[in-house]
Amino acid sequence: MNRRSFAILCAASPLAAMLAAQTAPPPPPSSAPTPAAGKQPPSSAPQPYQAVVPPTPGDLTVWPSGVSPDVVGKALAEHFVTNPLGQTVAYPSTTPRRMVVIGYPEVCTWYGALTFAQLTHDDTLRDALIAKFAPLMPGGPQASLTPQRHHVDDSIFGVVPLQIAIQTKGLPIYDPKYLEVGQGWADRQWGPLAANSPAELPQDVHDALVKDGLSPETRLWVDDMYMLTMLQLEAYRATGDRKYLDRDAHEMVVYLDRLQQPNGLFFHAPDVKYFWGRGDGWFAAGMAEMLRTLPAGHHDRPRIMSGYKLMMAALLKYQGADGMWRQLIDHPEAWPESSSSAMFSFALITGVKHGWLDAATYAPAARRGWIAVTGYVDQNHDVTQVCTGTGKLDNMQYYLDRKRETGNLHGQAPVLWAAAALLRDEK
């Protein structure tokens, strides 16, 4: 090997680099002053880790880095703005078909993002969310994505235009069409069923429920107590018309009487006796929203409050050491499920901040729940380990084996609700 080849080989080797570093002349003295004794090193120097210690175990204002509700909520809300519209759903009517429409998980996420924008006074985010919805209005270029069925999962669509009307009232951007469209959905929910939307209950049971003043969309599934609740509540919040509140509260009392068990939890349906996490989460969130709005003197408030407190006490018992709740709530061997855990956290946070729940008892659970749930938000601002869409089935293994998804809006929505609840000044 000649001298030139040997020189090239040595220069390319790690050993050569190490030798060069050892034999290189020392650098000239720095002109920068040496930090005086007792002074902090420059900010660029690594600092020792310091844990964030809340003032009390149940504090809901001080958070570790990356867990604060304003940061998490902002990331998820802005992520939703860029999501494509619509999802594929099955329409099992007389002519079964699949269509791309705005599904209830999108609506629930929209509501969460809008309320987060309102609470953080983020007009840019609010306007982006309104602009995303505008093409879905009647006559708009994407109006074909509007759901069609006379069904709780479709009727909740009216929540978004109602929330837009609430937030823009008195502003130059207010458009009365949003109130008109949203109120139309709320009124339709108590009207007769459309011909292509047969009742899901036996006809005699359905007729008796409607005669009792309930919505013809009543099906006695635990999920309904968010779908029905939110549309009627938003109509009341937008108009002040007491009829929306009264019929909504009456509906919730009937569901409480039919589905809540002595342990405080809810069966998925009268004929499916399992405590499915997200199903119970829908009811927990619906009761919390209802109690936020229901006046203190309303005749149905004591019954709803009683059911709410009974459930919250049960949630304390079943919360895991990791802060999460399980896919089947009363089965510790079941997998931790993020959407239900976010819904339960929202319900607990709301109760603590309103004073319905004893803070010393319930705030630590709410805090653990929130921190645990944020651990399931990935680097793309998608919520992970979300139970896929789930209908009722009288089979325990069916629930335990449900697919776990990432970015499913069933999970994105309640994390936004919980973030908003933490930021909301309830007193």
Describe the structure.
With 427 residues, this protein is mostly helical. The protein has one domain (56-423): Glycosyltransferase. 51% of the residues lie in helices and 3% in strands. It is built from 17 helices and 4 strands. Strands 1-2 form a two-stranded antiparallel ribbon. Strand 1 (87-91) and strand 2 form a beta hairpin. Helix 14 (338-354) packs antiparallel against helix 15 (359-374). The termini are far apart. The model is unreliable at 1-36 and 92-96 (pLDDT under 50).
Give the arrangement of secondary structure elements.
Blueprint: H1 3-12, H2 14-23, H3 69-81, E1 87-91, E2 97-101, H4 104-119, H5 123-133, H6 152-155, H7 159-168, H8 176-188, H9 203-211, H10 224-239, H11 242-259, H12 277-293, H13 301-318, H14 338-354, H15 359-374, E3 386-387, H16 396-400, E4 404-405, H17 409-423
Helix pairs in contact: 3-4, 3-17, 4-5, 4-7, 4-17, 7-8, 7-10, 8-10, 10-11, 10-12, 11-13, 12-13, 12-14, 14-15, 14-17
Identify low-pLDDT runs.
Answer: 1-36, 92-96
CATH architecture classification name: Alpha/alpha barrel
- Number-wise, the strands total 4
The overall average pLDDT, rounded, is 89
Strand content: under 5%
- Distance N terminus to C terminus? 85 Å
The CATH first-level class comes to Mainly Alpha
Structural class: mainly alpha
Q: What are its keywords?
A:
427 residues; two-stranded antiparallel ribbon; Glycosyltransferase; globular
TL;DR?
The chain has 427 residues and is mainly alpha-helical. It has helices at residues 3-12, 14-23, 69-81, 104-119, 123-133, 152-155, 159-168, 176-188, 203-211, 224-239, 242-259, 277-293, 301-318, 338-354, 359-374, 396-400, 409-423, and strands spanning 87-91, 97-101, 386-387, 404-405.
